[in-house]
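Input/output pair, single chain:
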Amino acid sequence: MHSTRRWFATIASAFCVVAAPALAWAAEEHGGGGGLISIDKSLIIQVVNFNLKDLSDADYRSACDGFAPELARVPGLVSKVWLADAASNTYGGVYTWVDRQSLEAFARSDFFAAFASNPSFANITSSVFDTLPGPSAVTRGSIPVAA
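Output:
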């Protein structure tokens, strides 16, 4: 059992030594044009949840298809993962921001104001987190960026 753990630890260590420079190279080589966000960069994660009010799951999903291209153009937004649990009427997203300033600028935007004041979205919550770059890199927390 211990030899299996040692073997796994050796392989994992070797992988990190080989993969980390490759990931850093990809981030540097493709900065802004595709690749990975640097594993050394501390990103900001925002988790937003809400309930739908007088809006069906199907209508919400259809509306999201229209919102996505506009949201993709928001400066400083690295990615958004859209969340939906129709059974509990819980929806939202996990946003990855390059920095707090980008998140705060978005919070002052007309797009955000329209969302926050829309009566179809109830019980809106938002939590903001710093990331831990070291352990995130170990657990493949790098963010792919489209070219």
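DSSP finds five helices and six strands in the chain. The helical segments are 2-29, 57-72, 100-107, 110-116, 133-138.
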